[in-house]
User: What shape does this take?
Amino acid sequence: MALLEQLAAALAAGEVEVVDLTAPLSEATPILQLPEPFANTRHFALHELSRYDERGPAWYWNDITTGEHTGTHFDAPVHWVTGRDGADVSQVPAGQLVAPAVVLDAAAEAGADPDFLLEPDHILAWTKTHGPLPEGGWLLYRTGWDSRADDAAAFLNADETGPHTPGLSVECARWIAEETPLIGVGVETVGTDAGAAHGFDPAFPCHSFLLGAGKYGLTQLRNLDRLPPRGALLVAAPLPIVGGSGSPSRVLALVER
Ligand code: 23J
Ligand code: MN
Assistant: This one.
């Protein structure tokens, strides 16, 4: 049997499962909130055109408004000043949107400390157990934050000192960008950077180093607990917004059962 016929048969038999890593997209989907004086993105919204009524008797349809960085979304290199000469979201090669993914589980650490930062040593320890990072693949960073996704206040976890959500250290972001074969990092939080990363040097190091290196980000993922540490195949499907810095995305993982 041809390879993709085997895959189709395995999907039909439940030997390969499709796990949806995407958060539902609605007005309630949490969004990033930057402090003054920075501009902020908007919530997703539906604007009804007709619903089997005089505006369109046999059809229901909506316009939508959304930020590029609303909900589960893809960060393209051009999103950050360090990647300003890099790809916009429509220019990301389709061949890179299907790629292997590994999962590093730091839910215990992030549960104990909402400002937990991943370090290169955590990833090196992971590779000792699970093998090398995948060439051209994703590192999916599980923090358990998806359990807060239906409560915007708990998800953003801000107090008078700003948001407190887990992320990557400056050194870890630099190391992933420069020293690993990864294509990008996926997270469960509202952005790829830690909540406190506005105060890091450089600020927002994950955005700065990864996008500057032509790599990508994926945010607000869920169901990472249903993936194995290695062996999943990730399908990330941002809209090809011409000139866009990112896009809400459907993100699926194929997993062998
Ligand atoms: C703009 C400025 C800072 C950040 C972000 C966007 C994101 O997290 C994003 O969605 O790319 S931290
Ligand atoms: Mn983004």
